[in-house]
Every structure is written in C-alpha cells, then in structure tokens.
Amino acid sequence: MRRLRLTRQHAVLAHRWAGLAMAAFLVLTSLTGTALAFRDELDAWLAPELRMAKAADADAARLGQAAPIDPFMLRERAERTLPQGARLDGVQFRTEPGHAVMLRATGPSLAGDEVYIHPLDGRIQGLRNSHANSLAPAQLMPFLFKLHHSLAMPGHWGTLLLGLVSLVWTIDCFVGAWLTWPRARPAWPRWRQAWRVKWRAGWQRANHDLHRAGGLWLWAVLLMFAWSSVMFNLRDPVYQPVMGLAFHFDDSWGSVPARAAPVTHPGLDWRAAHQAARRVMGDMATRHGFIIDHEERLLLNRHKGVYIYMVHSSLDLRSTIGNTAVMIDADTGAWRGQWLPTGGPAGNTVSNWLGALHMGHVGGLPWRIAVAMAGLLVCGLSVTGVLVWWVKARARRHRPKPLARKPATADKTRAA
C-alpha cells in the first residue's frame, strides 16, 4: 500500500484555500472584535437612556444625595412592575456610580430580556432584547456581539460554524509559519528576510511581504485569538479534550445536569440563598486560601435548579469583574460546583487567561487598545492574503500556454 507523503506543495494549497475560505469570517469577526474591545463605553454612549442612571428633574437633588437601596428590595420593586408571570433571576450587589443596574428577565409578554433599573429608587428605565438583530443605536452592541460569536444565526449553527473556522485558523497558524521557513541553505539568514517588508519593490511584492511578515510578527497573538475562539465555541468537543492531554480541569461547573422541569419556586428564597452561598464561599476561601474582596451578584438558574454566587477575590485576573463563583442547590443550599479563575487546576487557570486576554479584561486600557488594533491587523492579513492569491491567479491566467507538440511522423524508412 502506497503511503501518502505530505509535501510543501500540499501545505501551500492547504494554506491558500483555508485562507480564502476563512477570509470573510475573519474580516467580520476581527472588525466586530475591535468594536467589542470597548463594548461598555460604546454601549453607554449609544444607549444612555438604558445604561446611565438618570433621575427625574423633580427628584434629582434628593436622589443625588441618596444611597442605592438594598439590592434584594431593588429586585423585588422592579419585578413587581413587570407583566404578570415575569421574573428577575438575579441580584446585583456591586453597582457603578451613575449607571443603571441590569438584571435579566424571563417570562411572557416581555419587550426584552435585559431590564435596566435605577439603583436609587428601583424604577425601570427600559428593557432591551439582547437577541434582536437590529442596527438601532440601543441594539447595536448586543447585535455586534452576536455577529462576533455566532454570526447572529439562530440556534447553535453560527456558533458551530465559527468554531470550525477557529479550528482551521489554529491549524493554519502552524502551516503558515512553517511555509515561511526557507528551503535553501543556510536557512536562518534567509528566514530573517521573511520578517521584513520590501516597500520599494512594487505593491505586489510589498503586499506579499506584509502578509508574510505580519503573520510572523503577530503569530503568538493570532494563535491566542484562534485557540481561545475554539475554547468559546467548541469547548466540549475539541478544546477541553485537547487541553486535557496536558492539563487537569475541574469540571464541576459544567457537570450539573438540567432538571426535568425548570424550578418555579425554589426551596430557598433570595435572602436565604445568599446566606447559604456566603457560607459555602467562605469555606471555599479557607480551603483554597484566597481573600474575598467584594460581592458581585447572585443568579438563579431555573433549568439546573442552582443559585450562582459570584464574588471578586484575590484569585481574579480581572480588576473590575469578579469571576470567583460557587453553585449551590436552590432547594438545600448544598455545594454543586465552583469556578476558580486561578489557583485551581492548571486547565482552568490557562482557560481563564485565554478568555481574559481575548476579551481585553486584563492589562487595563493598553491591552484593550492592543486587542482593538489586533482586530484591524487580522482584517489586514486576511485582505493581503486574498490579494496574494488574486495576483498569482491572474498571472496564471495570462501565462502563455505552451505550444502543443506535433504528433510524431511515421518513419519513412519503414516504407523502404
């Protein structure tokens, strides 16, 4: 049996057609990712009527001196003003000065699933449907996020498609880097030229060099974005099995199955669940040796029948977002799962770093600017790659065809 031998030409063809197949997807996700690096700021600017806490004129002075009301009372007041049967499945403990509190709602006859509540008096400022495909200013940032994560497609098809694109992108990072290694010897001095751009050699050569050198200089960043995208979209079927070959994971967070029917009236009300969750979190802090800085939120997952209690701790990578969490049973308060940003199994720590780097949640403003610039550069690499293919394809079309060989004439001596 003849064994298949992969050659450099095979790698060239794979890189070419993978790049062409991915180009449109990478341009879309990179440009939306550039905007999403400043998602909160842009959203507050585009939808101030939702995001910013504004008091009525008559009450501005009084409310300006007031403190936020009890978060449990805030949830109760807002829920009472919603249509019958609607529920707010969260309590927000940490609030930003001057900003509204956003809680997610479920139930019939709702204009949206995001409810924005004034933190000082509990009145609802507005609702937003985060699933709507709309370019209206108040809907733009949620729509860009949907495009970035799932192409704004219904169901899981968009998520799966972008996951496959990310997987091909990850593999192509290695193929593309290998293709820059010269075949001639000595290789190292020649490879140094691959990191440079010959600007004066004409636009076609400069474009080719930009594509090659840009991919090399950005290689680690490209791989980080590619593989973290696989983590977001193909975590269970691809990312975790591959990473599990080298790292251990704590799977308790995703191991709680859905109940046969959503919980409508949990055994623990919100205040009782809060007390139970604080006890479990305190035990977890003692066991793992971390310090709790402040509380973030308490959520109810009715499908799984658990409360999710989140705090900001000394284990968190993000300075403004608490991601240390514990799950407790909604009826008994028993521990059901946990999430440690760092300080736990290596697989969870590496994954949290990948997610924080991808979303610009570490490194402050400089890294967010770098993430936004990386999005523009990925778009540029995709465009230069398509131009490289177009130039070569056009040259092949205009290449003179070799003259056909005339059939050999009969041997005249045979007649003799």
Descriptive account of the structure:
The structure is a single chain. The protein is α+β, with helices and mostly antiparallel strands. 50% of the residues lie in helices and 12% in strands. It has helices at 8-36, 39-46, 48-51, 60-64, 71-80, 140-150, 157-179, 187-193, 203-217, 219-233, 235-243, 270-288, 346-359, 364-397, 412-415; strands at 87-88, 90-92, 101-106, 114-117, 124-128, 292-301, 306-313, 324-329, 335-339. A hairpin with a 7-residue loop joins strand 3 and strand 4. The protein is elongated, with a radius of gyration of 28 Å. The model is unreliable at 412-416 (pLDDT under 50).
The portion of residues assigned to helices is 40-55%
- Work out the strand percent: 5-15%
Low-confidence stretches: 412-416
Enumerate how many helices there are, as a single number: 15
Task: List how many beta strands DSSP finds.
Answer: 9
Give the strand line-up of the largest sheet. 2-6-7-8-9
Separation of the first and last Cα atoms: 49 Å
The sequence of SSEs as H and E is HHHHHEEEEEHHHHHHHEEEEHHH
Name the shape in a single word.
elongated
Supply the helix-strand structural class: alpha+beta
Radius of gyration: 28 Å
Largest sheet: 5 strands, antiparallel
Overall residue-averaged pLDDT value: 92
